[in-house]
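Hi,

I'm pasting everything inline rather than attaching a file, because the server keeps stripping attachments. The sequence lines come first, and each chain or strand is labelled.
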Amino acid sequence: MKAIKPFGPRNLKMVEVSDPEPASDEVLIKIKASGICGSDMWVWRVDEAVDEIGGHEIGGKIIEVGSDVKNLEVGDRVAVNNVVGCGSCKYCRTGRFVLCSSRPGSDVNGGFGELVTAPARNCLPLKEGVSYEDGALIFDNWGTPYAALERVGASEKDDIIVFGCGPIGLAAVALARRRNAFVIGVDPVPERRQEALKAGAGTVLDPREVDIEKQVKEITGGRGADIAVECSGKGVSYENGFKALRVKGTFIAVGENARYELKPSQLLIRKNLNLIGSWYSTMREGLEVQDLIKAEKIDPTRFVTHRIDLEDVPDLFEDIFNYNQGIIKVLIKM
Ligand SMILES: [Zn+2]
Ligand SMILES: [Zn+2]
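And the predicted assembly:
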Protein backbone atom coordinates (compact mmCIF):
# COMPACT_ATOMS: atom_id res chain seq x y z
CA MET A 1 0.00 0.00 0.00
CA LYS A 2 0.97 3.64 -0.24
CA ALA A 3 1.72 5.58 2.93
CA ILE A 4 3.28 8.86 4.05
CA LYS A 5 6.31 8.32 6.27
CA PRO A 6 8.66 10.70 8.10
CA PHE A 7 12.29 10.63 6.99
CA GLY A 8 13.69 13.32 9.29
CA PRO A 9 12.86 16.90 10.25
CA ARG A 10 10.29 18.38 7.83
CA ASN A 11 10.76 15.50 5.47
CA LEU A 12 7.70 13.44 4.55
CA LYS A 13 7.55 11.14 1.55
CA MET A 14 4.95 8.90 0.01
CA VAL A 15 6.37 5.39 -0.12
CA GLU A 16 5.23 1.85 -0.88
CA VAL A 17 5.08 -0.32 2.25
CA SER A 18 3.76 -3.83 2.86
CA ASP A 19 0.07 -4.12 3.71
CA PRO A 20 -0.64 -4.42 7.45
CA GLU A 21 -2.11 -7.74 8.59
CA PRO A 22 -4.82 -7.93 11.23
CA ALA A 23 -4.17 -9.93 14.43
CA SER A 24 -6.91 -12.29 15.59
CA ASP A 25 -8.76 -9.54 17.50
CA GLU A 26 -8.22 -6.89 14.81
CA VAL A 27 -9.76 -5.79 11.54
CA LEU A 28 -8.11 -4.49 8.38
CA ILE A 29 -9.60 -1.21 7.20
CA LYS A 30 -9.46 0.44 3.79
CA ILE A 31 -9.24 4.10 4.80
CA LYS A 32 -11.73 6.37 3.04
CA ALA A 33 -11.28 9.61 4.99
CA SER A 34 -8.47 10.57 7.34
CA GLY A 35 -8.09 13.76 9.36
CA ILE A 36 -4.88 15.67 9.89
CA CYS A 37 -4.69 16.74 13.54
CA GLY A 38 -2.49 19.16 15.47
CA SER A 39 -0.98 16.25 17.35
CA ASP A 40 0.24 14.75 14.06
CA MET A 41 2.90 17.46 14.12
CA TRP A 42 5.36 14.89 15.48
CA VAL A 43 5.86 13.45 11.99
CA TRP A 44 7.34 16.82 11.02
CA ARG A 45 9.66 16.96 14.02
CA VAL A 46 11.41 13.58 14.02
CA ASP A 47 15.23 13.67 14.04
CA GLU A 48 15.63 10.78 11.66
CA ALA A 49 13.56 8.37 9.60
CA VAL A 50 11.10 6.41 11.75
CA ASP A 51 9.17 3.32 10.83
CA GLU A 52 5.80 4.75 11.78
CA ILE A 53 2.89 6.25 9.93
CA GLY A 54 1.07 9.28 11.37
CA GLY A 55 -2.65 9.98 11.31
CA HIS A 56 -5.21 8.83 13.86
CA GLU A 57 -8.57 10.19 12.70
CA ILE A 58 -9.89 7.37 10.59
CA GLY A 59 -13.11 6.51 8.78
CA GLY A 60 -13.09 3.49 6.49
CA LYS A 61 -14.44 0.17 5.30
CA ILE A 62 -13.50 -3.21 6.79
CA ILE A 63 -11.92 -5.48 4.19
CA GLU A 64 -10.71 -8.32 6.44
CA VAL A 65 -11.48 -9.49 9.97
CA GLY A 66 -9.26 -11.44 12.40
CA SER A 67 -10.28 -14.98 13.38
CA ASP A 68 -11.66 -13.97 16.80
CA VAL A 69 -13.71 -11.00 15.62
CA LYS A 70 -17.41 -11.64 16.08
CA ASN A 71 -19.17 -8.29 16.02
CA LEU A 72 -17.89 -6.89 12.71
CA GLU A 73 -17.94 -8.06 9.11
CA VAL A 74 -16.18 -7.36 5.86
CA GLY A 75 -17.93 -4.37 4.27
CA ASP A 76 -18.83 -2.65 7.54
CA ARG A 77 -18.22 1.08 7.56
CA VAL A 78 -16.51 2.22 10.77
CA ALA A 79 -14.93 5.08 12.69
CA VAL A 80 -11.84 4.18 14.71
CA ASN A 81 -11.25 5.18 18.31
CA ASN A 82 -7.54 5.88 18.16
CA VAL A 83 -6.65 5.06 21.79
CA VAL A 84 -5.88 1.36 22.07
CA GLY A 85 -5.50 0.49 25.77
CA CYS A 86 -4.77 -3.02 27.07
CA GLY A 87 -8.17 -4.39 26.07
CA SER A 88 -8.73 -6.32 29.28
CA CYS A 89 -8.91 -3.94 32.27
CA LYS A 90 -12.28 -2.73 33.55
CA TYR A 91 -11.96 0.51 31.60
CA CYS A 92 -11.03 -1.13 28.31
CA ARG A 93 -13.79 -3.73 28.65
CA THR A 94 -16.25 -0.86 28.70
CA GLY A 95 -14.73 1.09 25.82
CA ARG A 96 -12.97 3.64 28.00
CA PHE A 97 -9.50 3.07 26.55
CA VAL A 98 -8.54 6.63 27.52
CA LEU A 99 -8.60 5.54 31.18
CA CYS A 100 -6.46 2.41 30.75
CA SER A 101 -3.45 2.57 33.01
CA SER A 102 -1.35 -0.23 31.59
CA ARG A 103 -0.81 1.19 28.10
CA PRO A 104 -1.45 4.92 28.41
CA GLY A 105 -0.63 6.90 25.33
CA SER A 106 -0.77 4.04 22.85
CA ASP A 107 -2.53 5.08 19.69
CA VAL A 108 -3.87 3.58 16.51
CA ASN A 109 -1.58 5.32 14.08
CA GLY A 110 -1.59 4.79 10.34
CA GLY A 111 -4.18 7.24 9.06
CA PHE A 112 -1.67 8.52 6.51
CA GLY A 113 -1.75 5.21 4.67
CA GLU A 114 -4.26 3.42 2.44
CA LEU A 115 -4.85 0.59 4.92
CA VAL A 116 -4.74 0.30 8.69
CA THR A 117 -5.36 -2.38 11.29
CA ALA A 118 -7.29 -1.66 14.49
CA PRO A 119 -8.66 -3.75 17.36
CA ALA A 120 -12.30 -4.65 16.65
CA ARG A 121 -13.25 -3.14 20.01
CA ASN A 122 -12.04 0.27 18.76
CA CYS A 123 -14.37 0.28 15.75
CA LEU A 124 -17.67 2.15 15.86
CA PRO A 125 -20.02 1.04 13.06
CA LEU A 126 -21.30 4.06 11.15
CA LYS A 127 -25.05 4.51 10.94
CA GLU A 128 -26.82 5.08 7.66
CA GLY A 129 -26.38 8.66 6.54
CA VAL A 130 -23.19 9.14 8.56
CA SER A 131 -20.36 9.46 6.05
CA TYR A 132 -16.75 8.32 6.17
CA GLU A 133 -15.75 11.97 6.56
CA ASP A 134 -18.08 12.29 9.54
CA GLY A 135 -16.60 9.08 10.91
CA ALA A 136 -13.04 10.36 10.68
CA LEU A 137 -14.04 13.35 12.82
CA ILE A 138 -16.05 11.55 15.51
CA PHE A 139 -13.56 10.42 18.13
CA ASP A 140 -10.97 13.19 18.14
CA ASN A 141 -12.09 16.39 16.44
CA TRP A 142 -15.58 16.28 17.99
CA GLY A 143 -15.25 13.53 20.60
CA THR A 144 -12.40 15.27 22.44
CA PRO A 145 -14.30 18.52 23.14
CA TYR A 146 -17.54 16.56 23.62
CA ALA A 147 -15.91 14.50 26.39
CA ALA A 148 -14.35 17.61 27.97
CA LEU A 149 -17.71 19.41 28.18
CA GLU A 150 -19.46 16.25 29.41
CA ARG A 151 -16.87 15.92 32.13
CA VAL A 152 -17.79 19.28 33.64
CA GLY A 153 -21.49 19.13 32.82
CA ALA A 154 -21.37 22.45 30.96
CA SER A 155 -24.79 24.08 30.80
CA GLU A 156 -26.74 27.24 30.07
CA LYS A 157 -25.55 28.60 33.41
CA ASP A 158 -21.96 28.74 32.23
CA ASP A 159 -19.81 31.38 30.61
CA ILE A 160 -17.14 29.38 28.81
CA ILE A 161 -13.85 30.61 27.38
CA VAL A 162 -12.44 28.48 24.57
CA PHE A 163 -8.72 29.07 24.06
CA GLY A 164 -7.58 28.18 20.54
CA CYS A 165 -10.14 28.16 17.72
CA GLY A 166 -8.60 25.47 15.54
CA PRO A 167 -10.69 22.41 14.62
CA ILE A 168 -11.02 21.14 18.20
CA GLY A 169 -11.62 24.56 19.72
CA LEU A 170 -14.25 25.37 17.10
CA ALA A 171 -16.00 22.08 17.78
CA ALA A 172 -15.85 23.01 21.49
CA VAL A 173 -17.53 26.33 20.67
CA ALA A 174 -20.31 24.61 18.70
CA LEU A 175 -20.85 21.94 21.37
CA ALA A 176 -20.86 24.48 24.21
CA ARG A 177 -23.49 26.45 22.30
CA ARG A 178 -25.57 23.28 21.95
CA ARG A 179 -25.56 23.24 25.75
CA ASN A 180 -26.73 26.86 25.68
CA ALA A 181 -23.62 28.18 27.37
CA PHE A 182 -22.31 31.66 26.55
CA VAL A 183 -19.01 31.25 24.71
CA ILE A 184 -15.98 33.52 24.43
CA GLY A 185 -13.58 32.39 21.71
CA VAL A 186 -9.89 33.34 22.00
CA ASP A 187 -7.49 33.03 19.05
CA PRO A 188 -4.85 35.27 17.45
CA VAL A 189 -5.85 34.24 13.89
CA PRO A 190 -8.64 36.49 12.47
CA GLU A 191 -10.17 33.76 10.23
CA ARG A 192 -10.48 31.47 13.21
CA ARG A 193 -12.16 34.11 15.34
CA GLN A 194 -14.57 34.70 12.46
CA GLU A 195 -15.31 30.97 12.32
CA ALA A 196 -15.84 30.89 16.10
CA LEU A 197 -18.48 33.61 15.78
CA LYS A 198 -20.22 31.60 13.05
CA ALA A 199 -20.12 28.55 15.32
CA GLY A 200 -21.99 30.48 17.97
CA ALA A 201 -19.44 32.29 20.11
CA GLY A 202 -21.04 35.33 21.72
CA THR A 203 -17.81 37.23 21.42
CA VAL A 204 -14.24 36.62 20.31
CA LEU A 205 -10.95 38.03 21.58
CA ASP A 206 -7.46 38.36 20.12
CA PRO A 207 -5.00 37.44 22.91
CA ARG A 208 -2.29 39.52 21.22
CA GLU A 209 -4.40 42.65 21.24
CA VAL A 210 -6.38 42.64 24.48
CA ASP A 211 -5.99 41.80 28.15
CA ILE A 212 -7.99 38.56 28.34
CA GLU A 213 -8.60 38.75 32.09
CA LYS A 214 -9.89 42.32 31.88
CA GLN A 215 -12.09 41.65 28.87
CA VAL A 216 -13.60 38.47 30.28
CA LYS A 217 -14.33 40.14 33.60
CA GLU A 218 -16.03 42.98 31.76
CA ILE A 219 -18.13 40.55 29.70
CA THR A 220 -19.14 38.53 32.77
CA GLY A 221 -20.10 41.46 34.98
CA GLY A 222 -16.88 41.38 36.97
CA ARG A 223 -17.21 37.76 38.02
CA GLY A 224 -14.98 35.89 35.59
CA ALA A 225 -15.82 32.87 33.44
CA ASP A 226 -17.10 29.58 34.85
CA ILE A 227 -15.13 27.25 32.59
CA ALA A 228 -12.04 27.57 30.40
CA VAL A 229 -11.43 24.94 27.71
CA GLU A 230 -7.79 25.04 26.66
CA CYS A 231 -7.41 23.84 23.06
CA SER A 232 -4.46 25.96 21.92
CA GLY A 233 -1.60 24.01 23.51
CA LYS A 234 -0.03 27.35 24.43
CA GLY A 235 1.30 28.14 27.91
CA VAL A 236 -0.04 31.69 27.80
CA SER A 237 -3.60 30.34 27.63
CA TYR A 238 -3.08 28.76 31.05
CA GLU A 239 -2.04 32.09 32.53
CA ASN A 240 -4.93 33.88 30.84
CA GLY A 241 -7.40 31.16 31.73
CA PHE A 242 -6.54 30.97 35.42
CA LYS A 243 -6.77 34.75 35.67
CA ALA A 244 -10.02 35.06 33.75
CA LEU A 245 -11.86 32.30 35.63
CA ARG A 246 -14.15 33.09 38.52
CA VAL A 247 -13.53 31.80 42.05
CA LYS A 248 -14.15 28.01 41.96
CA GLY A 249 -14.07 28.07 38.18
CA THR A 250 -12.87 25.07 36.16
CA PHE A 251 -9.96 24.87 33.76
CA ILE A 252 -9.92 21.93 31.32
CA ALA A 253 -6.63 21.15 29.57
CA VAL A 254 -7.17 19.61 26.13
CA GLY A 255 -4.52 21.05 23.76
CA GLU A 256 -1.29 19.04 23.85
CA ASN A 257 2.32 20.14 24.27
CA ALA A 258 1.84 23.36 26.24
CA ARG A 259 4.57 24.43 28.63
CA TYR A 260 3.67 26.58 31.55
CA GLU A 261 5.22 27.45 34.88
CA LEU A 262 2.36 27.36 37.35
CA LYS A 263 2.33 29.59 40.41
CA PRO A 264 -0.31 27.66 42.37
CA SER A 265 -0.66 30.05 45.30
CA GLN A 266 -1.90 33.05 43.39
CA LEU A 267 -3.71 31.44 40.53
CA LEU A 268 -5.00 28.10 41.71
CA ILE A 269 -5.16 27.76 45.49
CA ARG A 270 -6.44 31.16 46.48
CA LYS A 271 -9.09 31.08 43.78
CA ASN A 272 -10.20 27.54 44.68
CA LEU A 273 -9.96 26.55 41.00
CA ASN A 274 -10.56 23.09 39.55
CA LEU A 275 -7.87 21.93 37.14
CA ILE A 276 -8.81 19.02 34.89
CA GLY A 277 -7.17 17.12 32.04
CA SER A 278 -9.31 15.52 29.33
CA TRP A 279 -7.90 13.18 26.69
CA TYR A 280 -9.79 12.03 23.58
CA SER A 281 -13.09 10.16 24.04
CA THR A 282 -14.65 6.82 24.94
CA MET A 283 -16.62 4.48 22.67
CA ARG A 284 -19.80 5.67 24.35
CA GLU A 285 -18.94 9.33 23.77
CA GLY A 286 -18.16 8.51 20.13
CA LEU A 287 -21.56 6.87 19.83
CA GLU A 288 -23.20 9.96 21.33
CA VAL A 289 -21.36 12.21 18.88
CA GLN A 290 -22.52 9.95 16.06
CA ASP A 291 -26.10 10.28 17.33
CA LEU A 292 -25.79 14.07 17.20
CA ILE A 293 -24.55 13.80 13.61
CA LYS A 294 -27.31 11.36 12.66
CA ALA A 295 -29.92 13.71 14.15
CA GLU A 296 -28.29 16.60 12.24
CA LYS A 297 -27.67 18.46 15.47
CA ILE A 298 -24.04 18.97 14.46
CA ASP A 299 -22.27 18.95 11.12
CA PRO A 300 -18.80 17.59 11.88
CA THR A 301 -17.44 18.63 8.49
CA ARG A 302 -18.35 22.30 8.91
CA PHE A 303 -14.77 23.29 9.70
CA VAL A 304 -13.20 21.20 6.93
CA THR A 305 -11.61 23.74 4.60
CA HIS A 306 -9.43 21.42 2.52
CA ARG A 307 -9.82 17.93 1.10
CA ILE A 308 -6.59 16.54 -0.30
CA ASP A 309 -5.13 13.35 -1.78
CA LEU A 310 -2.67 11.24 0.17
CA GLU A 311 0.14 12.23 -2.23
CA ASP A 312 -0.44 15.94 -1.43
CA VAL A 313 0.30 15.52 2.29
CA PRO A 314 4.10 16.11 2.14
CA ASP A 315 3.75 19.38 0.21
CA LEU A 316 0.90 20.78 2.26
CA PHE A 317 2.04 19.75 5.71
CA GLU A 318 3.89 22.97 6.52
CA ASP A 319 0.93 25.13 5.43
CA ILE A 320 -1.45 23.11 7.55
CA PHE A 321 0.45 23.84 10.74
CA ASN A 322 1.11 27.47 9.88
CA TYR A 323 -2.60 28.10 9.20
CA ASN A 324 -1.70 29.26 5.67
CA GLN A 325 -4.26 29.48 2.85
CA GLY A 326 -7.13 29.79 5.33
CA ILE A 327 -6.62 26.18 6.38
CA ILE A 328 -8.65 25.07 9.40
CA LYS A 329 -9.30 21.34 9.05
CA VAL A 330 -7.82 19.10 6.40
CA LEU A 331 -9.16 15.71 5.40
CA ILE A 332 -7.32 13.20 3.25
CA LYS A 333 -9.73 11.52 0.82
CA MET A 334 -8.98 8.02 -0.38
ZN1 LIG B 1 -5.68 14.20 17.22
ZN1 LIG C 1 -6.95 -1.33 29.77
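Residues 37, 39, 56, 140 surround zinc ion (ligand 1) (CB under 6 Å).

If the labels don't parse on your end, tell me and I'll reformat.
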